[in-house]
Specification:
Strands 1-2 form a two-stranded antiparallel ribbon. The protein contains eight helices and two strands. It is mainly alpha-helical. Helix content is 59%, strand content 7%. Helix 1 crosses helix 2 and helix 2 crosses helix 4.
Length: 148
């Protein structure tokens, strides 16, 4: 989340610059249209990345978004984005829910029918879309290869 937060800040700064510089100081603070524009840019960053399975921050940690259908539809991604905002607004309760859910899903995973999986290093290097198997199901050889 920290990696993506830094990227989103940079994207929002560029998006702001595209509007503020030509407009000069004529955009009053609290302008609803400008705020909706920035919210749309924020949503598009995540939705476009999620549609392909990973944001840049998720890619760094070999985390992939999976869903019943591929690629994820815009309605599913919109629900995920909005409920993720609610998860954070509830003082992180929606994220903490993953600690009690048997499959480790958050509120936005449950609402959108998605989930995050960690890919093995080998699969990530090969570009494979296979999620990492639980350690107990993997052979000793596979575990040794991952540590090398």
């Amino acid at each position: 989340m920290s990696y993506d937060a830094l990227l989103v800040v940079a994207v929002l700064m560029i998006a702001s610059m595209l509007i503020v510089i030509p407009a000069g100081d004529r955009i009053p603070s609290g302008n609803l249209a400008f705020q909706l524009y920035l919210l749309t840019v924020w949503f598009l960053y995540f939705a476009v990345c999620w549609r392909y399975g990973q944001t840049l921050g998720m890619k760094a940690w070999r985390i992939e978004l999976t869903a019943d259908s591929r690629p994820s539809g815009w309605s599913r991604l919109t629900i995920r984005f909005l409920v993720a905002g609610l998860s954070l607004a509830a003082v992180g309760a929606g994220l903490a829910w993953s600690l009690v859910d048997r499959q480790g899903r958050t509120w936005h995973d449950l609402a959108s029918g998605t989930r995050l999986v960690v890919r093995s290093r080998k699969d990530a290097e090969n570009g494979s879309k296979t999620p990492e198997q639980p350690q107990a199901e993997r052979s000793e050889e596979e575990r040794r290869q991952d540590h090398q």
